[in-house]
Amino acid sequence: MSNSSPNSAPQIDFKADWNNLDPFNDLGAVAKVDNPRRMLDQFSNGLRGGAEKTVGRKEMIDARLISLLAKHSRAVCRVSVPAGEVDFRGQMATGGWHGTGFLVAPNILLTNHHVLNDETVASKAVAEFDYRTSEADLLGGPPNSSPSAVHFRMTPERLFITSSFEDFDYTFVWIESAAAEQFGTIQMTRGSFLIRQTEPTFILHHPNGHPQKASVDDTELLSVNSSFLLYAADTEGGSSGAPVFNKHGQLAGLHHAWWPIQSLRAKFPNLTGRLNDGNITGHANEGIKLAAMAIDLERRIAMGDTKARDAATVLQAFDGSDTLTGMFGSLGRHSGETTAPAYEKVVTVYQGREQDIDVGAWNIEWLNRDYDNADRLHRVATVISDLNLDIWALSEVSVPAVDGLIKVLRDTFKQEFEAAYSEPGSSTGKQSTVIIWRPNVVECTREDWPEDLDALFRSHSKDDDLPFEAVHGKIFNRYPGLFRINLKSEEKDFDFYLVPLHLKAKKEGSLRREMASKALSYAVDQMIQIHGKDSDWIILGDVNASLKSGDFDALEEGGFTALGAVDENNGAFTYLKAPYKSLIDNIFVSDSMSRVANADDFYIIETDRTVSRFVKETSDHRPIALRLSLADLPNTPARNGERLSFDEAFHQMLARAGLSPNSLRETLPVPSYSSADPTSDWLVGRRNKTQFFQDNRTRFIDEITQANAQMSNLVGARLQPLTLTDVAVVYMAEAGLKGGIVDPDFVHSNGEIGLFPLPSRTSFWVGPHAPAHNQPMPLDVNIRTYLTYLCALRNKVVKTVSNTPLYPGLFREDGIAGHPDREAKLLAGIVHGYFWSGNYASRKVPFGHILAGYADDKPLDQIIASTDYVHAGKPLMTNRQSNINEALFVLV
Would the pLDDT of 51 be above 60? Predict the structure, then answer.
């Protein structure tokens, strides 16, 4: 923005903290991307012209870019506001002001809020297109010639939505359609990885209200984070609201502010302004990423903003997907405190921890026999990376095909996936189904169906002993695997069963599809009612028929909802080959899943997505996807900083869903054990803590060895073994005492029964056959289970924070790794909740501070005292330090 007197032009503050120039430093952990910085560097290798893309670091630009920028320049205009209007600061501008804007849709102009700050100003302003130096002037024509321009008025009463200059500093406003008809539009995209450090930016703008200029030299991108770009380019007042392009000519951001580099250093000392060629830029610019603006618009819709309808209209003009959020964007995610700045809310949405699970299904035509085709594997990986779901049910695949796919995802796109197969022992070329998942979000385990149901799924329909009427043909050509999905979270309890399908096709398969529907409905009912399993189920995949065929009535009658019903009625289709285009891929969810899933959150990957070209080139099916929105599932309630038992939280969750726990999965009945169990060979008697540990030292070592052996079977060479020092330090704080004597039947503060207080979610850590934490059990069962739990804390990844896998990565930190005493203190700290955000008033764990304290051998109470931990400054922390000292100097 420039005033008629340039010296009075306002200076707009930068929004981001540019003291740290590492890409995406503002995000820390991101729910949907394992490592945003690595993906930024690698994404260009994966897309070859689709979805998001970055570019190589070359000194030259493609000649085609010149013509593309020339085309874009026609959609860029000077925005002129007449004298007498009130600007964004609330000041009367006696001389008016200028800015830059550009067309992003047939009737929508985009500029900065500080250019068009309200509807009154917008109604008085003029958009001046083709305000450029003429060719004659450029070639040395008469001086001071006045360029002509084509003027258009804006109609803010039709559409006007703005974000203040303290937030994202954007304004979208309605403009007459004749402008776009004559000058075209510039496509907006949601991509987060459009440009990386040291690559050039290109800005088309009207500096100080002058005829349009292009900044093309020394325009290097200095840094990028989740919402903003920092770049070197020649801009001035009046450049505000200009489009910022990448080396491909894609719109990457909205320019909104510039500052001299010397002034910026006072605020950001690490911002040197040094370019890749060694030169120092004179000033730096900040632009707003289009992807962040899209999330802000979605957030405003979700919050019921008065401009929600305008926001929805603008969102229709966006293309592509934002890999940082996955294909669903901010759908179902909470954006934090309502008083926080908008850009902080967007960061919260990007982080999206434990707010959703995205599930998809895709029939990848004949990938089972085409797995050695590197280009095809690359296209499949492109689709999966761009849509960025957490769980995929894939069909027409095989074990070697999926192994190759996961390798491409890991090596090229830097995304970690794991796989489990419905038929793990099947032949190389056999079509089968598989589940792949992101291990930092969920844990997936293949389970065996009970024998009676396994026999049902493997039977021929003419068998005489089926529990329903038989018809001709084999029921399941591809075995329906059973998979248990658990959210990796310490704050939310959520799991469900998932069954991937690929049923018999065409008309002759109708009776078998109908029978499969009956078999699945029967099986789920048996699993819940007879086998005591959970009531949350998703059945999904290529069912090879539409709902109107009636083949799946049994599933719907059995309490399942087909999420694709509305789309089918509206003519959508997932099978792409004419003349059979139809919706034959679907997701069925059980009634109890309605609290986290509904038909509004079901999507077919349609042709308006830039990734759709890859879908069509790769398979005859479109993927389907569902977001399970967990943001409104309550965190496990806390009691004095500790969490409720799993049973209590689970029953509360069932009650909220209107379900009875009697018909759902419960912990299997546990016999009423006591410490008097004659099979225990632990020496108890009337021993205090020190005596019990010393007299059972060999027994502890044996159990530690067994726990490490079991964990080694799971993690192999990555094992971080549990040690006697670990156990001693935790034991001194946790072992139950009665009258100073060790008590194997001790009842701990949250109702845990036993010498050691087993965690409420014991099964999450040690497996489904773990004992209930609040029921009596033999002493050896309690100790063995607890030591297995401690070993899991050292080795099992729960989630990733700032690229560190919790909790194993903490033990590899400098100053901790290789120091047994410090590792033991760290393990005790994990047990006591020092690394759980729910124990801090700010909901933020001071990882660096705590780890540094351990590395410097500071007393625990001193480490915690300066934090907002729930027990900071209380005698409990001093007592825990005393327990640590006794364990290290007496027991070990």
Answer: no
Q: How far is the C-alpha of 127 from the C-alpha of 86, rounded, in Å?
A: 18
Local structure of residue 13 (DSSP, 8 states): P
Q: Residue ranges of the alpha helices (H) in 597-723? A: 612-618, 646-656, 689-695, 697-715
Distance CA 377, CA 370 (A): 9
Give the Å distances, CA to CA, from 700 to 411, 704, 729.
Answer: 42, 6, 13
**Closest by Cα among 49, 110, 37, 50 to 75:** 110
CA 185 → CA 3, 80, 252, distances in Å?
A: 27, 20, 15
Q: Exposed, middle or buried, 629 (CB in 10 Å: 0-12/13-18/19+)?
A: buried
Looking at residue 591, the DSSP 8-state letter turns out to be G
Distance separating alpha carbons of residues 871 and 877, to the nearest angstrom: 7
Could you tell me the pTM of the whole model?
Answer: 0.61
Helix axis angle for 847-855 and 820-831, nearest 10°, is 140
Element (H, E) at 763: helix 762-766
Q: Please check whether residue 295 is in contact with residue 330, taking contact to mean a CB–CB distance below 8 angstroms.
A: yes
4 in helix, strand or coil?
A: coil
3-state helix, strand, coil in the chain (%, to 5): 35, 20, 45
Query: ω into residue 579 within 30 of 0, thus cis?
Result: yes
Tokens read off for 211:
């005829």
- ∠ CA(346), CA(21), CA(13), 5° rounding? 60
Residue carrying the six token digits 């997505």 = 609
Residues 6+ apart with CB under 8 A from 751: 645, 773, 774
CA angle 260, 265, 271 (to 5 degrees): 100
Query: At 796, which amino acid appears?
Result: K
Distance CA 90, CA 288 (A): 23
DSSP 8-state code for residue 450: P
**Cα–Cα distances in angstroms (integers) from residue 680 to residues 613, 759, 780, 786, in the given order:** 65, 22, 6, 16
Distance CA 682, CA 780 (A): 7
Q: How far apart are the first and last CA of the chain?
A: 70
Mean pLDDT of all residues in 236-247:
92
CB 330 within 8 A of CB 321: no
pLDDT at 456: 84
C-alpha closest to that of 866 among 885, 833, 887, 840: 840
Residue from 584, 552, 579, 553 nearest 568 by CA: 584
pLDDT in the model for residue 745: 93
Residues 6+ apart with CB under 8 A from 243: 72, 76, 102, 186, 203, 204, 251, 253, 254, 255
HSE-up of 423 (CA within 13 Å, CB side)? 23
How far apart CA 633 and CA 651 sit, in angstroms, is 13
Nearest CA among 625, 105, 51 for reference residue 320: 51
Buried b (16+ CB within 10 A) or exposed e, 475-495: bbbbbbbbbbbbbbbbbbbbb
> Mind spelling out the 3-state secondary structure of 187-227?
CEECCCCCCCCCCECEEEECHHHCCCEEECCCCEEEEECCC
Distance CA 653, CA 634 (A): 8
- pLDDT tens profile 403-446: 999 999 988 888 899 999 999 887 777 788 999 999 988 999 99
d(Cα 558, Cα 539) in Å, to the nearest integer?
13
CA 169 to CA 79: how far, in whole Å? 16
DSSP string computed for 385-447: HHH--SEEEEEEE-HHHHHHHHHHHHHTT----EEEESSTT--TT--EEEEEE-TTTEEEEEE
pLDDT given for residue 518 in this prediction: 86
Question: Do residues 183 and 130 make contact, with C-beta atoms less than 8 angstroms apart?
Answer: yes
Is the distance from CB of 437 to CB of 409 less than 8 angstroms? Answer: no
